[in-house]
Amino acid sequence: MLSAEPVLRLAGISKRFGDLVANDNVCLSLGRGEVLALLGENGAGKSTLVSILFGHYRADEGSIEVFGRELPGGNPRAALEAGIGMVHQHVTLADNLSVLDNVMLGTEALWRWRSLRTQGRSRLLEVAGRFGLPVNPQARAGDLSLGERQRVEILKALYRGARILILDEPTAVLTPQESDALFETLGEMVRQGLSIVFISHKLAEVLRVSHRVVVLRQGRKVAEAFTPQTNALQLAQWMVGHPVKQSQREAGLRPGRVVCALQEVHCDGSSGDRLNGVSLALHAGEIVAIAGISGHGQSALADLLCGMRRPGGGRMMLRDAPFPITPAALIAAGVARIPEDRAGVGILGDLPVWENAVAERLRAPEFSRGGWIRAGTARDFAAGVIRDFDVRGAGPMAAARALSGGNMQKLIVGRALAPKSGGASPFPQLVVAHQPTWGLDVGAVAFVQQRLFEARAAGAAVLLISDDLDEVLAMGDRVAVMVRGRLSEAKPPEQWSRAEIGLAMAGDRRAA
């Protein structure tokens, strides 16, 4: 299906990790001046495939040809020298170094007696001008916005002579305006003959920027198409193997009483992780969605509502009573949390699935008595979570680390939202969902969103914190923007435009 001169060919790529077949006879080509979108649900084999391409892994079978020459496996330097550059989802710049130092790092021999900084600066500015990526070589990387930092990451690859770029979830932490600027840059790269492998879970972006799509499922290539000949629903079906029903927010529901209220709350922390006079009311039967670029106080707010931090000032109430200050007291009061870091905070990988399923309520009479764990009851509860929340890949007795990222998230969501016996209500009163669908495939996203809608319908107050603007607008009954520890007024999504939210995310108070 290739419509342009091929610059990259992968033939029969297979990779196994023990009994797991991560890639199974994958073949694909990339044309000169082409954007190829690589799609697949979590665990489909995308990361393994690009890791093989960039030399981080060696394929068990198959071959890679770059610009007509075979690429040796397991050698990142060979990939770089062949003209392959990779921009990872998470920016890896050294914050204490200048832009120029970050770009030149690793490009000069260690035994050179002095760095050729003047030549390096000239080359950086030439590359930046050619591709429309304005940059200040002397700026400190730690002072840049996320969009500017990503621009530097792209320049690092282009400075090294990359002619094929792999972009992994490049818009995950960008404002809409920064995403638009990135897409314009990609268009200029393509016009100058660069080729791009674009990995994203955002199907609207894929349809906007790519020429072709290749879909992986369970390690195999299951579909390939020219982008104008497909649509988001078809792509989603190829990814998961069945039609995906999109969750819809039910309009017209009237929220109930205030479940949680914050008045002029302050919380100390690092410059990007504090709260400055935040006021917010969360009502029963309502989702309040908070948009913003990560690192502007969202973690502080989520930790505060889950008892992981204490306020430095202001007033907090939970159902007309002073806000509990410990995680155990909050859980007992009906607060459920879906943490941002599922692998580091939400799950203990060495513990079995059943222990993770009850970890936050282990002292409840339902699961323990007299200091003894009621293991049978706990395992039955875990089995119910696995069944009702479609957790695949491991049973109650297996170690939680055996689960994929998406299934870890389903386990965490099930632990938070599954009905509990005992207490005033079997359902949570307040749900704090921090990046609940981050990095999930389209099927898992729809599943998690539907469960949050069900919690809302059951009378819970839901606080949704997300970097995904589409998710915020689709799910929020009210939407607010957080920037530099301050929270805007929460308004119905119809009263926001995407441009206004983007400006507010960038710090424009008039937009907020």
Characteristics of this structure?
24% strand; 17 helices; six-stranded mixed beta sheet; alpha/beta; globular; 512 residues; Rossmann fold; 2 domains
Describe the structure.
The structure is a single chain. The chain is α/β, with parallel strands linked by helices and 512 residues long. 32% of the residues lie in helices and 24% in strands. The protein is built from 17 helices and 22 strands. The radius of gyration is 24 Å and the shape is globular. The model has no long low-confidence stretch (mean pLDDT 86).
CATH class of the largest domain: Alpha Beta
β content, as a range?
15-25%
User: Which range best describes the helical content: under 10%, 10-25%, 25-40%, 40-55%, 55-70% or over 70%?
Assistant: 25-40%
Q: Which topology of the largest domain does CATH recognise?
A: Rossmann fold
* Overall structural domain count: 2
Q: Which architecture of the largest domain per CATH?
A: 3-Layer(aba) Sandwich
By CATH's scheme, which homologous superfamily of the largest domain applies?
Answer: P-loop containing nucleotide triphosphate hydrolases
Rg calc: 24 Å
Using the alpha-carbon principal axes, give the shape: globular
